Amino acid sequence: MGNDDLRRYAYDVSLRIIGASLQSEKSLREKLKKKEFDEGVISEVVNDLKEEGYIDDYKNGLSYALSLIGRKYYGKNYARKKLAERGIDRETSDEILSYIETTDYDETESVAKYLDKIGGAKSERISSAEYQKISNKLFNRGFSPESIKRALEREF
């Protein structure tokens, strides 16, 4: 197969991969390497896809982070971790999370909404063991200790 044919084939494979789910640049590169494409071909194809708007780590990462934070009630720390797992670099993740902070996002309010969702808001006194259990669960969802404390003080 000639270099142009190989490049076109790698491009078509990339579009199929992206069509199945949004990809970060890093994850697409890894998938193309597994398919044993040459590094030079991968770089050319990835650059073309970036220029055409098919790969945009900021846009894709923002969409994913908003889904985690806004609809699934995870905290910013969890979103940062999941962005890294998707191959979004630290600088881009920080930009995404900084942007989210400029919106009307309130992490304490997110904690309260999550508590409502799981039936945790009881407006009554709870034992310190139960308080700690709820705090740990919230911390594991990526909420900051300050937001957890403020939300739990409001709720209980």
Radius of gyration: 21 Å
pLDDT averaged over residues: 91
Helix/strand class: mainly alpha
Number of strands: 0
Helix content: over 70%
* Helix-strand topology string: HHHHHHHHH
Dominant shape:
elongated
Oligomeric state: single chain
What's the tally of helices? 9
List keywords for this structure.
156 residues, mainly alpha, Arc Repressor Mutant, subunit A, 3 domains, 9 helices, 74% helix
Describe it for me?
- The chain has helices at residues 3-20, 25-34, 39-51, 57-71, 76-85, 90-102, 107-118, 128-140, 145-155.
- It has 156 residues and is mainly alpha-helical.
- It starts with a helix and ends with a helix.
- The protein folds into 3 domains: 3-51, Arc Repressor Mutant, subunit A, CATH 1.10.10; 57-102; 107-155.
- The mean pLDDT is 91.
In short:
This protein has 156 residues and is an all-alpha fold.
Q: Topology of this protein?
A:
Layout: H1 3-20, H2 25-34, H3 39-51, H4 57-71, H5 76-85, H6 90-102, H7 107-118, H8 128-140, H9 145-155
Helix pairs in contact: 1-3, 2-3, 4-5, 4-6, 5-6, 7-9, 8-9
